[in-house]
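Deliverable D5.2: sample structural annotation.
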Amino acid sequence: MTEWEDAFLTIWAHAVYLFVSCTKGGRAVKKGIHPEYVEAIVTCACGETWRTRSTKREIHLEVCSACHPFFTGKQKYVDSAGRVERFQRKYGQRSAGENKG
């Protein structure tokens, strides 16, 4: 038996053991020390909601995959207190060929 086959059989045996112990009323975790795992509702600031499971019943997010620029492909500038304008006034709009200094 090769090393790869031996590793595969070891992992398979552990998976079967865990499956059998969990489906026959056994638990993979100790009783009484873990928080209750319940259905949760996740709500994003953009209004998107979905259900998952967690130890909390409600989860509130500021950004999710429905509104994050990486997932939507849209760039948003969040200008808090005019920081972009202040930066542009201080450093100006430089072209690619200008010396930095």
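Annotation notes: The beta strands are 38-44, 49-54, 58-61. The radius of gyration is 26 Å.
The annotation will be released with the project's public dataset once the embargo ends.
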